[in-house]
Structures are given as structure tokens and as C-alpha cells.
Amino acid sequence: MHTITLINGDGIGPEISQSVMDIIKASGLEINWDIQTAGADVIEKEGKPLPDRVLASIKKNKVALKAPVTTPIGKGFRSVNVQLRKDLNLYANLRPCKNLPGIVTRFDNVDLVVVRENTEDLYAGVEEQIDENTAHSIKIITRQASERICRFAFDYAVKNNRKEVCAVSKANIMKLSDGLFLDAYRTVAKDYPQIKQREILVDNLCMQLVQDPTRFDVLVLPNLYGDIVSDLTAGFIGGLGVAQGANIGLDCAVFEPVHGSAPDIKGQNKANPTALLLSAIEMLRYIGENQHAQKIEKALFKTLSNGDKTQDIGGNLTTTEFTQKVISNL
Ligand code: NAI
After folding, report:
1. Under 8 Å between Cβ of 276 and 67
2. Chain centre distance of CA 23
3. Helix/strand/coil (H, E, C) string of 151-211?
4. Of 138, 156, 183, 274, which residue is 20 to 30 A from 117 by alpha carbon distance?
5. Is the pTM of this model over 0.90?
6. What's the confidence (pLDDT) of residue 2?
């Protein structure tokens, strides 16, 4: 039996985690979930939002499924998500974005993948209050991390029969930092002559994406642009409720949706578990449980095709009703 760490998060996290555990169990796959709490609720008891036991559990089990954890805005503790990615060296954030059956959106045939660098850039958290009216944030870009993420993107393209890897930057303005990222991309690209290369500035990318997202295949981006662009691309396929993701490192992987803890719908039985479920399906493939992954994906797609959906994507089902529909389609 697989033992997998589950961070059930806060906000809508516990509701969607329960849904996904129920669906996986109903598919006939027994998983020993090592449930680990993190975030604001554990600070009082354990003194920090990301206790060492969480990291130890992931290091031991090598694989985790993670529901969202709230990060206080403008003050309070540092993001548990950012810290987790840094501490476990989960350097690649993979966010595939493909149309789903039964969800009508503005564009058909969207099938792109955002590969986001996950450990540095402005997310390194190097900030300084110069005086009352001035604050500095340092953008850190290294050749090592840039080459590593570009190589990940090209390897992903080769393995998944993708045609193109496009580097996204703002190297016309940030000539040193984004310039270094682009230089790393060009160096790595030389090893992949079979994959088409392309470079684009992030502002132009956003304009072109909203005009026609089918123009793009694999995108590789520094951390901040990757974060923003992947929320934008989530909009092409039905929104954050259906956008999956994974954080991959050398030793372990943490699968988590793109969305946050959605405090506005917390505890209302409204949350869409699809994004976490799709992340879990990829996790099952990652651990070699392809048949179960396939079975659950089929049941999910059938449910959505039947028009059985949660409110965020135009349906009227609650989280628990939707979960039951998927289970009955297994
Ligand atoms: P959010 O993604 O939580 O919510 C944005 C909007 O999308 C809200 O209207 C929400 O109701 C809706 N939404 C998101 N997921 C949904 C789902 N599964 N089903 C139905 N509707 C859904 O973004 P927001 O409000 O900016 O962030 C809330 C908190 O989450 C913040 O503290 C933020 O730092 C944290 N966050 C955590 C992440 C993580 O744990 N990986 C990622 C992004 C944000």
C-alpha cells in the first residue's frame, strides 16, 4: 500500500481533500494517507505554520497531495507554500491547461503547459524596508536555477510529444536578471534541436494568450510571471476550480491545485474538488497507479460531460453531491 502525505490545508482545503480521498477510495485503491496540518491554525499549538513534522513526512513518503493554505496578505507569517517549495527544493511547478469535457469556454483546443520556476525570483522573500515610504524587493535569478527549469521544460516536451518550448521574460527591461534567464534558456535549448524554440516578452504573451491561447504549447517562466500567467491560463479552461498543478523536485513531488484556500466559499459545501482531483490523478500516474488514474479520470470526465457540475463552472451541485456523482460513475 502507498503511504502518501496529505496536507489538507485550510479554507476549502479540508472539504476538497475529503472529496478526493473518498473518490480514490471508491476507485478501489487503498492509500495510507499521512495527514499533516499546516498554516495559521497550527501556529498557536506548534509555534510555526510549517512544522518540521510536515517536511519530515514528505521527505519520508516522497510524494504529497496538498490542498491550499492561506497566506496572510501584507503582514504575518511567510507563505507555507513558498517555504515548502524552497525547503524541499521543488524547483519545477508544472501547470497543464487543457480543455475539459463538458465545460464550455471561449476557446476550444487549448492545450498548453506552464512550467514555472519555483525557488527564486521575487519570491525569494528578500525584502527591505528602506524608510517609512520606501521598500525594496530583490529579484534573484541564478544561472543554475534557470538552466535547471529550462531543462525540465525541454525534457517534459520531449517526453510528452510537445513541439515547442517558449521562454517568457521581460529581458528588454530587466536586462541582467531576465537577461540571464533567457541566456540560460538559449544554452539549454541547444541540446534539444528537435523542439521548436521561441522567445516572448511577458506583456506580449498575455495579449496573445487572450487573443488565441492555441498559439502556445509549453511555456517556461521565472517564478512571478509563471504564477500570474498560470492563473490567466486557468481561465481558458473554466477557472481555478479545475486548474491542476504539481511541484516537482529531485527527491520528492507535491501535487496541488493552482487555486488558493477560497475563504469566500469556505464551509459552504460549494468548492469544486476537480482541480485537486486532477492533481491527484497526475500524482497516481507519478507513483505508477496508471489504471486507477485512468479510471478516476474517466469517471470525472463522464460526470462533467453529463452536465453534473459545481456552481463555479455553471452547475448547481454541492461539493458532496458532485463527489457522489463521480463515485457513481467509477
Ligand atoms: P483563491 O484561488 O483562493 O480564490 C480566487 C477565487 O476563485 C475565489 O472567488 C474563489 O471562491 C474561487 N475558487 C478558487 N478555488 C475554487 C474551487 N476549488 N472551487 C470553486 N471556486 C474556487 O485566491 P485568493 O482569494 O487570492 O487567495 C486566498 C488565499 O489562498 C490567500 O491567502 C492566498 O495566499 C492563498 N493561496 C494559496 C495557494 C496554495 O496553497 N497553493 C495558492 C494561491 C493562493
Report:
1. yes
2. 20
3. HHHHHHHHHCCCCEEEEEECCCCCCCHHHHHHHHHHHHHCCCCCCEEEEEEHHHHHHHHHH
4. 274
5. yes
6. 95
pLDDT tens string 267-276 = 999 999 999 9
Ligand 1 atom closest to residue 275's alpha carbon, by position in its atom list: 18
In sequence order, the 6+-apart residues with CB closer than 8 A to the CB of 292 are 24, 27, 28, 29, 284
Q: Kindly give the distance from the C-alpha atom of residue 261 to the centroid of ligand 1, in angstroms, as a whole number.
A: 4
Give the C-alpha separation, 272 to 269, whole Å.
9
Amino acid at 5: T
What's the pLDDT tens digit per position in 214-249? Answer: 999 999 999 999 999 999 999 999 999 999 999 999
Q: Name all domains of the chain by residue range, CATH numbers in brackets.
A: 1-90+240-330 (3.40.718.10), 106-236 (3.40.718.10)
199 near 182, Cβ under 8 Å?
yes
